[in-house]
Amino acid sequence: MTAIKNGMAEWTKNTCITFKKRTNEQAYANFKLGSGCSSYVGRTGRIQDIKLARGCWYTGIVAHEIENKHNFKKYSKSTIDSLGTAYDYLSVMHYGGRAFTKNGQPTIVPVKAGAPIGQRKGISATDAKQMNLLYKEQCSKGGNGGGSSNCVDISSRCPGWTKYCSYHSYVKANCKKTCNLC
């Protein structure tokens, strides 16, 4: 459970992305013990299993699988875009040089000779920047990461009013943090 919380925290503390506990949503992430570290890439619109074997319980691995799941759009190869950022050899999404090898030989060789590639410590600054750029229109924090000074609950009773977030105007206006509106 700690690895999941830490993996989510990598995204929430460095980007405008937030997570909330599932209530009755039909589309949600479901963390479960699996035989490897995997998640379907892109939003499925329904339950989406993030499978984590015992060897996957590390912050960076969980952050990697969350990003696989988090993309709202699955892009074709012709539309893949780095959003104006430089190529990031140390992205949490980048695999190491011998990932998936069957014979011990390199499977990925960086163009920049000797550059270290891949890591699973946590998201990189470029990972955060790309996520913010990708979701800037949906992020009320403006897509620049960090917190927002107006992302607060005005009433101490907000945690008990979550079921009203979707339709009660008072709750929407006064419980922005609880209702994930910022």
UniProtKB/TrEMBL annotation:
Molecular-function GO terms, alphabetical: metalloendopeptidase activity; toxin activity; zinc ion binding
Enzyme active site: E65
All copies of domain Peptidase M12A, residue ranges: 1-140
GO biological process: proteolysis
Record carries keyword Hydrolase: yes
Coiled-coil regions listed in the entry: none
Domain ShKT: 151-182
EC number per UniProt: 3.4.24.-
InterPro entries found in the cross-reference section: Astacin-like_dom, MetalloPept_cat_dom_sf, Peptidase_M12A, Peptidase_Metallo, ShKT_dom
CC cofactor note: Binds 1 zinc ion per subunit.
Xref: SUPFAM superfamilies: Metalloproteases ('zincins'), catalytic domain
Cofactor: Zn(2+)
Keywords annotated in UniProt: Hydrolase, Metal-binding, Metalloprotease, Protease, Toxin, Zinc
UniProt xrefs under SMART domains: ZnMc (SM00235)
Functional description taken from the UniProt entry: Metalloprotease.
Protein name per its UniProtKB record: Metalloendopeptidase
Species annotation: Desmophyllum pertusum
